[in-house]
Design brief:
- The chain is α/β, with parallel strands linked by helices.
- It has a domain of 213 residues: 3-Layer(aba) Sandwich (Rossmann fold), CATH 3.40.50.
- It is built from 16 helices and 15 strands.
- Strands 4-5-13-10-11-12 form a six-stranded mixed beta sheet, with helices on both faces. Strands 8-7-6-9 form a four-stranded parallel beta sheet, sandwiched between helices.
- Helix 5 packs parallel to helix 6 and helix 13 packs across helix 14.
Length: 440
């Protein structure tokens, strides 16, 4: 298949429909210099047909080329922003499975559910899909240092890809608000890690200042190339389903980069003729960190951040999500919904996912908790074809799991979470007869 050089296909453009200013793909921009809105990557229409694209994507599964073995770069025609693919560093990200889970489907009020489990990524979360693209653009721009503020998964992913790319990684964390499982990854991959006495949103404002002052490339989801990589999650999901579109795609909502990416990718797949319709998107937030839910359901004119977001699901503990304008557009474009769930609902849904032999981090379990709530309300039909995205690996937050099953998990404010589906370990004597009787 012949593809035009990326330099003729790609540009940066303002997301604001009243502005839509365009800029060179090589500029370092996170917001529009003219109106302040978010920036996104845009492309000229592809010359290849949908049939050609589908054939190319499928044939690459048999290739030993590093680009083709990546579940992101396999779909590179859908985000042709690079003029030189030697800048790419891949850890064979993507390639994550679609898993059926009958017990979870029953719990969620559905006849069937499929989990698109991004926890199978190299560093254990969906962030790898976006980070391979963000780091590739950093190298293409000649950057030497990259940075992010993170509650865990972004830091782990950026540290790994920066190490593989030979870049210096600078990670800023909210002090005391990160899972040790995630922090351990960042430390292991050699990142310089700073724990700041502030929350996520305050630190993001801080790092924006430092990035401009010190010439550091920012790799949070405000970076448009992170979004481009995360689109591939939808391309791979559709490819795995032979391009049959589900009725719903349900995902957690923290900084809202994923829903922005998923919606953009699905719209572009539709424009390219790869699919004939859009699925509805459902974003699920934790009750103590749900500014997007409140904004959508109140029909407010202004977006109001949550000053002190609280949830044990640290991956979605974001009070001022920068991608909310993009996320709102994707929810409206897909006729989707936004829901919120309690700490108890998240914890119980997580335990059910575990009993399916799958497992996930707490933030991921908000998807099943939200589905259960939406089916009970009649928003999602029992017969609906639903894909739920699990964003992180079960071992990202082992302390949460241990406390839940021991009946010692407490929500913010000291509210005890019931161990509804607890599985406490049993201490026994070294006595075969007594153990046999216990197990009998």
């Amino acid at each position: 298949m012949t593809v035009a050089p990326p330099s003729t296909l790609a540009q940066l453009r303002c997301f604001n429909p009243a502005c839509r200013s365009q800029f060179a793909i090589t500029e370092v921009l996170y917001n529009c210099p003219k109106c302040g809105a978010l920036i996104e990557a845009g492309y000229s229409p592809l010359s290849a047909s949908a049939a050609e694209l589908k054939r190319t994507f499928r044939e690459r599964r048999l290739s030993n080329s590093p680009l083709d073995q990546s579940g992101v770069w396999r779909y590179r025609e859908m985000f042709p922003f690079l003029s030189d693919y030697s800048h790419v560093v891949t850890l064979r990200e993507g390639n994550t499975p679609l898993l059926d889970a009958p017990l979870a489907a029953e719990y969620g009020g559905l006849k069937r559910i499929s989990f698109k489990h991004q926890g199978f990524n190299p560093t254990g979360s969906f962030k790898d899909n976006g980070m391979t693209c963000g780091v590739a653009q950093a190298r293409a721009l000649g950057m030497k240092r990259v940075a992010c503020v993170s509650t865990g998964n972004t830091s782990a992913s950026m540290a790994a890809y920066a190490a593989a790319a030979g870049l210096e990684a600078l990670i800023f964390l909210p002090h005391g608000n990160i899972s040790f499982g995630k922090l351990a990854q960042a430390l292991e991959y050699g990142a310089k890690t700073l724990e700041v006495e502030a929350n996520f949103d305050q630190i993001l404002a801080l790092i924006r200042v430092l990035a401009d002052r010190l010439g550091i490339y920012l790799l949070n989801s405000v970076n448009p190339f992170r979004i481009e990589g995360q689109k591939s999650i939808m391309f791979e999901m559709l490819d795995q389903r032979d391009w049959q579109v589900p009725d719903w795609v349900v995902l957690p909502g923290g900084n809202l980069g994923n829903v922005s990416a998923f919606g953009k990718g699905l719209r572009e797949a539709n424009s390219a003729g790869l699919i004939s319709r859009l699925p509805k998107l459902a974003v699920i937030q934790a009750e103590g960190s749900a500014p997007f839910y409140e904004f959508v359901h109140e029909g407010a004119r202004e977006f109001r951040p949550v000053e002190k977001p609280e949830t044990l699901a640290t991956a979605i503990r974001i009070g001022d999500p920068v991608s909310w304008p993009k996320a709102l557009h994707e929810i409206q474009s897909s006729n989707g919904v936004v829901e919120k769930v309690s700490e108890q609902e998240i914890a119980d849904a997580k335990a059910i996912i575990g009993r399916c032999g799958i497992g996930c981090e707490p933030g991921s379990a908000s998807t099943l908790a939200g589905i259960r709530k939406l089916t009970a309300a009649g928003v999602i039909d029992r017969d609906a074809d639903v894909v739920a995205v699990l964003t992180g690996n079960v071992l990202k937050d082992p302390d949460y799991i241990y406390k839940y099953h021991r009946g010692k998990l407490e929500a913010p404010g000291g509210v005890k979470i019931q161990s509804t589906y607890g599985n406490r370990s049993i201490v026994v004597l070294n006595d075969a007869d007594k153990i046999a009787k216990l197990l009998g």
